[in-house]
Amino acid sequence: MIPRLLYLPASIGLALLVLPLAGLLLKVDWPGLPALLLSPEALQPLGLSLATASVSTVLCLLLGVPLAVVIARSQPRVAGLLRALVTVPLVLPPLVGGIALLSLLGRGGVLGNTLELAGLRIPFTTAAVVIAQTFVALPFLVIAVEGALRTAGVRYERVAATLGAGRGTVFARITLPLVAPGLLAGTVLSFARALGEFGATALFAGNQAGVTRTMPLAIYTAFNGSGVTTDQAVALSLLLIAVAVIILVLVGTRRASVLS
Amino acid sequence: MTPALWKSAANALLEANLQLTRGSFTLDVRLTLAPGEVLALLGPNGSGKSTVLDLLAGLAAPDVGTVTIDGAVLTAPGRFVAPERRAIGLLGQDALLFPHLSARANVAFALRVGDAQLNASLARKEADRWLDRVGLKDFGDSLPRALSGGQQQRVALARALAAGPRVLLLDEPMAALDAETAPFMRQLIREQLAETGTSAIIVTHDIVDAVVLANRVAVLHDGALIDQGTTAEVLAAPRNPFVAALAGVNLVVGTVQNGAIVAPDGRIFWVRPADAGDLDSTGPGAAVFRPASVVVHTEQPRHASPRNVWSARVTAIEPGSGGVRLRTSGDPEVIAELTPAAVADLGLQLGSTVWLSVKATEVSAYRR
């Protein structure tokens, strides 16, 4: 029962999403690929990316799930305000996020000065990478989990309370399992977002090999690098795509699609 | 209402005095529940029945009011015990089994939150015994979505009772079940309440629930209890059209004039001689007659031996227990019950104008 006219834009849309990736595959220097991927220039950023994105995702869970619960169970007006605040980083260009993080935590920044006095310097460290990734990824998790919580409603929680279950028990044994699909989708999304994070990282953490050069920065460096061919950039992109695909497959595309 | 009915029972298990205003709705209810008693709370939609249950269970707080159970204060000015510490259970229209837990785990959940010492394997065994009691011995491993609506509700009953509530609140527990399943569930609730000696308040639309399950009936209307008594008393002499409709009778609440009841719209209902003697002075009164006593004519009856004759429009034609129920216009509306064949013979349709008659000897009357 679909109007036939819709197939045309639908095909163009799909082509727009798929063809560039197909183009990328055509550009891959397949014989030279193993060497490119096993080089330190590829493995080091990959390791750093996986490590920082994992830590960021854990941070997102630790901070985002409680935030989602607070939003979902707030009065509608408060919830609307909180939701808007959480959404801002989502619609912000990541570069702006990077500048904002520098303004707060960088040299001369409000918190940055205080931390400097305590002997802590955040910008241009691996910690800055994690903070930048968490900054851009957290909204995805909060929105996914908050939506799931609102859909689940409070009816099961109320029943659990009338059975005598305290709030902690209800949260751990009823609320969290009920929103498991949303939680999983949110986790996958925030990990993917953290893995792909470039703009905020570049400004706030810089591009120091082994410290802050994650996969996206490595790709950028390879692509812009003087005298270097784009082969390295293409190979690294392929690697990043492969990692993303593997995660999606491991998690199961069916369950990840619960979010949509 | 006589003041005596409002007196708290000497050995009340639950006593509640609840006042709440939300917009234009005001609730003002005092009720008591004796140990082992089952109270049916009847009332039309919007009368505040479910609100009363929420206030008792601690899922909402009254503006002013108290709830005590066994003398322990649960709700009072400056005091509000959380629902999980009230030991007041709730079984609603929907079973609300936790969807990620098996039937057994649902029941075990209630057992273990009630008794932190209970280990998992004992809880499972105990849960199986509860499932057996509700006739679902072999369904312990089933997830809720694999169970029928009736089975889910049985597990929910087992779960609610397994928590060991001091009072169980039942909010239209049969409303979502089909006609074949509901009677079975009703009997099961009756059995299990009796076996466990659980005191309960059941909110219902269905008079059968009150008759089968309850010792006592309270009628809630617009946020106030307007009638209260033993089930038999309340149903035998309904003081309110809602209860009368539930009991399957026509109820005309009006005024007594010259040995008859005058309806709000001016219709006069002559009543049987036995009752007419009580109607010698004016005052509030009510006439009650069965829908089957109402005779329907398409033309004004000429030789009308029945003394009560009036014309009305047909406002609804619906299936009834004894045939077809015809709702007719007026204040109050009058329901006539006739056979499907009679409806066809008379060519009755929605909006038809009909003449209705009731023999005075079929009409009983009450002073209010």
Report the CATH C-level class of chain A: Mainly Alpha
For the largest beta-sheet of chain B, the strand count, sense and barrel status come to: 6 strands, mixed
**Domain unit count of chain B:** 2
What is the CA-CA span between the terminal residues of chain B? 8 Å
What proportion of the residues of chain A form beta strands (DSSP E)?
A: under 5%
**CATH architecture tag of the largest domain in chain B:** 3-Layer(aba) Sandwich
The number of distinct helices of chain B, counting runs of at least 4 residues, comes to: 10
| Overall body shape of chain B | elongated
The CATH homologous superfamily of chain A: MetI-like
Mean pLDDT of chain B: 87
Low-pLDDT sequence parts of chain A: 256-260
CATH T-level fold name of chain A: MetI-like fold
Helix content of chain B: 25-40%
Give the termini distance of chain A in whole angstroms.
22 Å
Can you count the beta strands of chain A? Answer: 0
Can you name the CATH architecture of chain A?
Answer: Orthogonal Bundle
* Morphology call of chain A: globular
Low-pLDDT sequence parts of chain B: 1-9
Subcellular location (chain A): Cell membrane
Protein name (chain A): Molybdenum transport system permease
InterPro entries (chain A): MetI-like, MetI-like_sf, ModB_ABC, NifC_ABC_porter
Family (chain A): Belongs to the binding-protein-dependent transport system permease family. CysTW subfamily.
